[in-house]
User: What shape does this take?
Amino acid sequence: MSRPTVKPYKDSAEGKKAQVEQMFDNISGKYDFLNHFLSLGIDKGWRNKIIRMMRNDAPQRILDVATGTGDLLLLQGKKLRPQRLVGFDLSQGMLDVARKKLDKHGLEAELVRGDAENMPFDDNSFDAITVAFGVRNFENLEKGLTEMARVLAPGGKVYILEFSQPQAFPFKQIYGFYSRKILPFLGKLISGDASAYTYLPESIAVFPYGDAMMRILEKSGYKPLQYIPVTLGVATIYVATKEA
Ligand SMILES: C[S@@+](CC[C@H](N)C(=O)[O-])C[C@H]1O[C@@H](n2cnc3c(N)ncnc32)[C@H](O)[C@@H]1O
Assistant: This one.
């Protein structure tokens, strides 16, 4: 069954990919502030949890897909110290911010601009792949996941952090009001891009989560391992492996 496609700019005839690139180029300068402000800093804890989960395997070749302004990449560089660290993203504006942050912290990483659905990496070239708040923005989710499975080494793991939908009363209702009313208002006010922060709750509402996401991972070439809802299900961390 095909999923409805939600795009950032409703009046534009461009495809989702071009619109997503434009949106992140537009908001790149304000992205970090808005991210931490609108999530009350909780997003930092979610990324740290991924780092703790990765630690046991000590992956030496790490690819952070949809790295954006590089928050997860920075943590990987600081805390996991891999031999090879690559941040990959569609938006040059976001990568420019990531580069500045890496330089400020004296960290080395390759930053590559491109499309996650068609990456310029050899088969089996990474021990771990991470994606934080990226897969929801892919034009073709299955294609992106399959491409990540191609470049992941057998036995390697993928860690996906993505928004999901809280179910518990009354948190579901409170969060629904926050994400549909307050978040778009503040997002527009601060970023100047009215569409970006209505796209956020709209894209979350149609995006698969929980067991549905595990089934998609399985169809895309992985053995799904576990999923962990965080902050009452506002987001979920999915872990899957490529069988050796
Ligand atoms: C919400 S940001 C997340 C950034 C970062 N991972 C974080 O946790 O803050 C989503 C990022 O996904 C990138 N993106 C969306 N579609 C992409 C694609 N097809 N290939 C590569 N990057 C993509 C966007 O350019 C944007 O930087």
The CA atoms of residues 62 and 85 lie 5 Å apart. The chain has a mean pLDDT of 95. The chain has one domain: 16-164+209-241. The chain is about 45% helix and 20% strand.
